[in-house]
Amino acid sequence: MTPHLIQRRRLLQSLALASAGWYLPGRAAAQLRLASDPFALGVASGSPASDSVVLWTRLLLDGEEALRLQPGPVPVRWELAHDEGFTRIAQAGQAQAVAGLAYSVHVEVQGLEPDRWYFYRFAAGDAVSATGRTRTFPAPDAMVARLRLAYASCQRWEHGYYSAYRHMRTENLDLVMFLGDYIYEYPNASQAVRKPTGGWVQTLDDYRGRYALHKSDADLRAMHAACPWLVTWDDHEVQNDYAGTSPGDSGPPVADFTARRAAAYQAFYEHMPLRASVLTRAMAGLASGAEMRIYQRLSYGRLASLYMLDARQYKDAQVCTRDGKAGSSTLNPAGCASWQDPARSMLGAQQEGWLDAEWGSAAGKATGWNLVGQQSLFGRRDFRPGPGQVLWNDGWDGYTAARTRFTDSLRRHAVANAVLLGGDVHENWVGHIKADYADPASAAVGTEFCGTSITSRATGKANTPDILAENPHFVFADSERRGYGVVDLTPGLLTTTLRGVDDVTRADSGVQTLAKFAVQAGRAVVEKA
Ligand SMILES: [Fe+2]
Ligand 1 center to residue 146 CA distance, Å? Predict the structure, then answer.
């Protein structure tokens, strides 16, 4: 049997066990070698709907050896309550944590009331997890007064502490949208703030270990426990600058990149509050390149549609590269024929078609704001002041035909109040989505807020006046500060507050408001607030 088939068979067996439901344990959980705190990776919730939410945890057993030797499923009890004291239980049950999925647990609680806060916790043996707080979304047809969410991305471990999350926790949020680079596959960084990271991440065990490292941070765990998250990924959850099934360019190459990608995707599932259907739909052939679909649209009442896109898994390879690297800055790409090739896609034909259909559908049109979480900076970013252009070929700039199809779709369906949220570039960029970035006089078809990183370092100088002047569709840029953005939505107004930590090298860093912007409903204009 090929390694692919063995991996696939194990995955199928694990899923069968995990979905078997009420399993009567063959032996008492107390006999299992649970780690001193089997819930050391914390709890999380996500993918909320108006009647359901996913509750997540992953058990730690006592050491790697025990993880390998524990053959059977481990029963994990869960409770969801109306109150933090768990005196009014809404629902309770038992899930099975299985070795094939790293003892992760994804409980999809159904039949909940819309627009409600709940508390949840897990128990295994005599250990009880931390208490998490989560919420359901309002019913799709409900009139909703407000939504408050944060967007965040890029949290390289060695580059700093997650004090951003400690401050985010005080923001009283309904939701976090995480836009990629939850882990990085690199070994230790030079001038590391935190050690150790470990070596290159390539195998399933490596990826699991890297997620566990990140979740050893108490501020990250606390933010997961504070409210539900919607998550997507970018390149570093697999490898720097990979695109579709084309490998990226960091670290020693692996013999079978598709198998590496499958391992990375499985580890992502194991550590995120995703619905089990995300993995079960993929299980027929993840190791041979089948998709793991994580893009989706959710309604937050009539106030907003929340889109989470996947601009990595289906992406065509970068073109016009330099120095044999997948991603690179490209001088004057107009002279490189494949740059404008309309056959190249960022989202893949299927996702592009799905998004176009969503924007044309009655459900898509029933909501006021169209908030699109995606990986990167959307608008053109020319690094070279004056004549000539230097553009980054891994971002939307390297996929100009696909970007135009995106904006054409917005215009064709007259999508009101399109707002793109992004990450990836480790810099804050705020501006207007343009029908034609080459023409400053062309129509604005929406607004864009690309967020800085939680910790990952920036290398550019985004906020120099000549760079902003070169890209007049942007009204603000900053590469100095790490942090996150907070979006407040009401039917008539969007307000975005950019928050930056004072010193990412300190776990006790303070936070400042860098800038605040407003967008009135019906007008694609970013104003200072
Ligand atoms: Fe990043």
Answer: 30
